Amino acid sequence: MIYCFEAAGRVTSGVCSTCGSACSSCSHACNNACNSIQCTACCKSLTNVSSRPLGCFVILAFLLNVPAGILAVLSALDEEVQRCRAAPVLAWCYGALMLSITNAAFAFYMQHKLASAIESGTQRGARDIFRHAGTIVLYDFVFCFYIMLFAAGFVFCFLGVGWWQTCHIHSWEAVWAALLLLFFAFGTMGFTCCWGFAVGCWGGLEALGLSSSLARIFFGVREQPVVFAAPVQPAPYRMAAPGANTSQALRPGY
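-> structure tokens emitted (254 positions)
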């Protein structure tokens, strides 16, 4: 029995040593791979995007439009879609791909535009953010063009679902792409309402003199330090000698 236990222990020890060596090799390989593709820089870039103003909007655009674009490409490669002549489903797939790319690009553009306007100013309160956002909405040509494209894309998604039903296509990639684009449209409208409401609440907190650290974290604006002026000390006075002129009884001196 002793020899049996010793043999079992040696086998177990050998298996564990082999597994440990394999895990160490995998860990070393993963570390080398991460260093080669600079995962740290990639994570830092993602952190910078999420911590800036409209970071939630950029993440929403990325999570919904990238899969929508991939599904549109897969649908365009489907043979049933390519053979369909009853409705322009293939053209819709290409249009959905361009719409998803435009949505993601506009999210990054809007974040860069608003962050640059905020960082260029001296004040970073709620009123200033609202003023910068209003300037972009009223005077930015790209924003005005995207609003028209956004409305057209909303209708375009419903047309795609109808064309998909007309062609009797068995694959569902085009439908899922249209649904993701519609989710992004509704999510954008909801985020805009919540963002405006949050700006108003932040402005109310500032008007009351209350802390708004949570709102500053949400909007990605760093709180500027408040600098207080040092109190001015009065100059010491000394009494004049007895018999001196009374108009010069008190005079500053050290």
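Strands lie at 237-239, 250-252.
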